[in-house]
Amino acid sequence: MHIRIINPNTTASMTAAIYHAALQQAGAGTQVSASQPDAGPVSIESHFDEVISAVGVAEEVLKGEREVGIDAYVVACFGDPGLLAARELTRAPVIGIAEAAFHLATLISTRFSIVTTLGRTGIIAEHLLQQYGFSHHCRRIRAAEIPVLDLEHHPEAAFARIVEECCRARDEDDIGAIVLGCGGMANLTQQISHEVGLPVIEGVSAALKLAESLVSLGLHTSKHGDLAYPRPKAFTGKFAALSDLSLPLDS
Q1: Contact 203, 98 (CB under 8 A)
Q2: How far apart are CA 232 and CA 235, in angstroms?
Q3: What pTM was estimated for this model as a whole?
Q4: Nearest partner of 179 among 141, 231, 127, 152, judged by Cα
Q5: Which one of 65, 189, 214, 234 has the fewest CB atoms closer than 10 angstroms to its CB?
Q6: β-pairing, 94-96 with 2-6?
Q7: What span, in angstroms and rounded, lies between the C-alpha atoms of 4 and 75?
Q8: What count of other Cβ atoms lies within 10 Å of the Cβ of residue 245?
Q9: H-run or E-run covering 177
Q10: What's the rounded Cα separation, in Å, for the pair 207 and 98?
Q11: Over the stretch 73-119, which tens digit does the pLDDT of each residue have?
């Protein structure tokens, strides 16, 4: 099977890191590829960033649908930007890394905490917990208060801050597992788990394995109801090219 990892931001080095983290977890016979939008924010740290990046996610799915043999997509940002819109555009499973991480955390613990980058993105994570129905499983959302790109530019200092917050979560939150709240942390899971002594879940690997499972089971995105393909219509201005979408009309 072929799984496409979409990094919704435009930082190529982060796309490469996410790709290599996913590749290490891929099963035998799973091909992994990665892409990012041509335009958009270099990191995603606000509602505004998410709105802009969601357009890029949709465009990357449309590009993937013009290729042959992509069986599933992973949206590799913890805000899951554009997730439902992406699901409208394809029959292939589309997995957001936050939703995937929440699901897996509840399978190995009754309560978990999230350690993310900035406090404001923690609020976005709280909204997702409510939307997905996991609020009662999450004890606390903790922020290391590091910009996302510090994971690239100042990795040692960023790692130390993340481990510090994870240790506080372990000692103060009465939890069984920790969820890492940023796709840019995808390559840190084993190191953090070793330092903290708790199971640590990061969403890129979680989403990849869930995508593999859905493809293996022959399950696809339902085209009945609100995830049916969008109805064709005219788009104007910078989005005029979207008027020419040749998506199926079945619902």
Answers
A1: yes
A2: 9
A3: 0.94
A4: 141
A5: 234
A6: unpaired
A7: 9
A8: 14
A9: strand 177-181
A10: 8
A11: 999 999 999 999 999 999 999 999 999 999 999 999 999 999 999 99
